[in-house]
Amino acid sequence: MSVESVSAQGFARESLAVLQQVIESARDDVAAAADLVAECVRADGVVHAFGTGHSQALVLELAGRAGGLVPTNRLSIADLVLHGGEDPAVLDDPLLERRAGVAARLYDLAAPNPQDLFVVISNSGVNNVIVEMALHAKEHGHRVLALTSLSHTRAVPAAHPSGRKLADIADVVLDNAAPRGDSLLELPGGGSVCALSTLTGVMLVQMTVAEAAGRLLAAGERPPVYVSANVPGGFEGNLELEKKYAGRIRRTAS
C-alpha cells in the first residue's frame, strides 16, 4: 500500500470494498442470525448483548437504541458495580476482562430467562470473559450469536483454559471481515492505522435487525421497535413498550 493510500479517501475506498464484501458474503449467516433473533422475540425472550473494549460500541448499536428492538439488554463489566454491589475500584483493573468468574457473575446479575438469546461481540474472540460468557450461556441452554473477526481469531492462540474461542462456541457466527489487529491501512515500515471492525460490525448488526424485523412482519407480527426519545411522544411510547419486559431489560444513563 502506498503512502498516498493512507488518507481519508484511501480509508473510504478500502473500507467500502470490505463492506461490500461483507454484505455479499454474510448473506446466509445474517439470515441464520435473524432467525435466532426473531425466534427469541417471538418467544417473549430478550436479546442480551455483551462485549468489552470497543466492542461495547456494537452492544450499544444493538441494545436500547432508536430504530432497534425493545427486548434487548446491554451487559457490561460495569454491571459488577451498578447492579452487583462491587466497589467501583474493581473497574480500575485493566486485566479484569481476563479474570475467571467475571462472566458467570454478570450472567447471574442479568438473571436471563431460558428463551433469551446471547449476542457476544469480540473482534479477537479470545479474551477470557468473552469465551466464558459464551460457554456459560450455552451451558444454561441459551443460543449464542457471535460477532467476531475470523481472520484475527484464526491467527492468534486461544487464551481461555478450555482452549476454545468465541467462534468455536456460537450457534451462528457473523464475520466482520476485519484484518488481524483490526487496522486497515498499512503504514510504511510496518504497522497499520484506522480500525475497521466497528464499521463492518454496525452493518452486520443492522442487517440482522432488519432481517429479523422482516421475519416478524411476514408472520403477521409487529416488531417491538424503539422510536427516538427526541421526537414528540417517543419517550412515553417507548416506556409503554418496555412494560412488557419490566425487570428484564436495563436502561441506565450512558
UniProtKB/TrEMBL annotation:
What Pfam families does the entry give?
SIS_2
Its Gene Ontology molecular function terms? carbohydrate derivative binding
Cross-referenced Gene3D superfamilies: Glucose-6-phosphate isomerase like protein, domain 1 (3.40.50.10490)
Q: Which PROSITE patterns match?
A: SIS (PS51464)
Residue ranges of the SIS domain?
A: 37-223
Its GO biological process annotations read: carbohydrate derivative metabolic process
- List the protein's name: Putative phosphosugar-binding protein
